[in-house]
Specification:
Layout lengths: L2 E6 L7 H15 L3 E5 L7 H4 L10 H5 L5 H4 L1 E2 L6 E4 L12 H11 L5 E5 L6 H6 L5 E6 L3 H16 L4 E9 L1 H6 L5 H8 L2 E7 L2 H9 L8 H15 L13 H13 L1
Parallel strand pairs: 1-5, 1-6, 2-4, 2-5, 6-7, 7-8
Antiparallel strand pairs: 3-4
Amino acid sequence: MARRIVITSGKGGVGKTTVCVNLGTIISNIGYRVLLVDGDFGLNNLDIVMGMENKIIYDIFDVLQGRCRARQAVITDFFNDNLSILPATKFVNSRAVMASDILRIIDELDTYFDYILIDCPAGIDQGFVRVLNLASEALVVTTPHISAVRDAEKVINILRNSGYSVLNYVLNRARGDLILSGESLSISSISEFLGINLIGVIPEDDEISNQLMIGGSITKGTDAFYAFRSLANNLAKGKSDIFDCTKKYKGTMGYFRRILRKIV
């Protein structure tokens, strides 16, 4: 039976899909079979971030319409047999897709995978409600911005009231230089406000921006890679290794890095 995890956020643009893709990629590299499900009908881009948009023959709506079986719509990654995606569709009114339909498809695929990560639409509208019954575990993605943190809290309260038993959050696009200078919310204050476990910190990194532009995986050896590796180990192996986004900005050399970061 697969471990099903909804990856969601209260606000759009916080990097929820990139978290889903990179987390799933590294978990699959550990040796687990991972399925990424695009739950954002109409605005889907999971396949684009993975660089697999040209590989799609069937999508989840084709399964619902009986044009193919669920396994036929699943696409395996070019370089990793343990990583697959179930793409959504751009060409359908999202209201035509029922939560029970998606649950039926995921139930059908469950035995083939160890992890099913569901990329949920941002916000708390119908798209979010549609995926609520697909799992009992959630990762809430937020950035250090006040509006994103407040919206994340609203989503967390809904998840709690919906019976989610495991709730963790990921702090994305964290600027270590701004945290040290007091120009950004501190990680401890965000954790206190949200009231759930912090499972990963992902730094602001040009490597992730490059991934969004050209698709594919992030480069090994970068800060982003190490941060996602820590997140994956925390989730899959129960570790508690949080990437320190402030480390390289401490000390004398760190001080100069902070100065240069502001200038550049």
